[in-house]
Amino acid sequence: MSDPIQKFKCIGVVGAGNMGSMMTFAFAEMGLDVSVWDVNTSNLDKLLGLVKRSGNLKGKIANFHDIDEFTKSLEGRAERKLFMFSITHGHPADSVLEKIKHDLKPGDIILDGGNENYRRTERRQKELEPLGVSWIGMGVSGGYQSARRGPSLSPGGDPNTIETVLPLLERYAAKDPKTGLPCVTNIGPGGSGHYVKMVHNGIEGGMLSTTCEAWALLHMGLGLPYDEIGRIFARWNRGGELRDTYLIQIASEICQTRKTPHGDEKGEGAGPNDGYVLDDVLDKVVQDDDNTEGTPFWTVMETASRHIAAPTIACGHFLRVASGNRDQRLRVAQKLQIPPPKPLQDIKDKEAFIETLRRAVFASYLLSFCQGLELIARASKDENWNVDLGKCIQIWRAGCIIQEEYIADMLQPILESGVQIMNIKLIDEVAAELRSNYDSLKQVVLKGTAADAYLPAMSASLEYLKYEGGTMLPTKFMEAQMDFFGAHAYDKPGVSSEDPGLVRKGAHHYEWRSA
Ligand SMILES: NC(=O)C1=CN([C@@H]2O[C@H](COP(=O)(O)OP(=O)(O)OC[C@H]3O[C@@H](n4cnc5c(N)ncnc54)[C@H](OP(=O)(O)O)[C@@H]3O)[C@@H](O)[C@H]2O)C=CC1
Ligand SMILES: O=C(CO)[C@H](O)[C@H](O)COP(=O)(O)O
Question: Under DSSP, is residue 109 helix (H, G, I), strand (E, B) or coil?
Answer without folding.
Answer: strand
